[in-house]
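WP5 quarterly update. Target: Pectinesterase inhibitor domain-containing protein. Source organism: Setaria viridis. Length: 184 aa.
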Amino acid sequence: MARAALILVAALAAAMSIVGGEACNQRDLMKWNEACLMAAGNTVELYNLCQEMLQHAPDAAEMSEYARLAARFTNRSYSGTVAAAQRLLAGGSIPAGQRPAYRHCVERYSTASAQMASVMAELASCDYGRLKQRYIDAKAAMESCGRELAAGTPLAAMNAADKAAAPLLFADRDMTGARRRRLK
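Structure tokens (predicted):
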């Protein structure tokens, strides 16, 4: 789920450039379902995730606002994975040999969460220069978690689900064919 959320956040931010670079100027509003169509392309899973992420969004907003809300949703997903890992560690049910891998995952997901917090701040301040790199860094941090986990462990299953949630899409995704209507 976290990977799909990250993919969607990146796709929403990428869509901002297609909208004409007018984000944060309160002139170029879009309905949330149009933002989801643009960000998800033909991927039903991403469209459904976008709907879930933006269910409390305003009916019409700038694309940067939708991307910020999606980043917040993603950050909550990361926090949920970290909380689950910490509960498993505290419960003592993790074999001693896997404890360092679980601690590594907590650290890496925390790094991914910090990247998403930066994404939210940059979107709020209309500073888009480092967004793509922040998405890439967040994805790399999340994926590095799984490298040390033994197959079959609970956290390995959560991490695998995060990574398998959707096909790889990033901020450089080709969205030039996406259609968009301006609200009157």
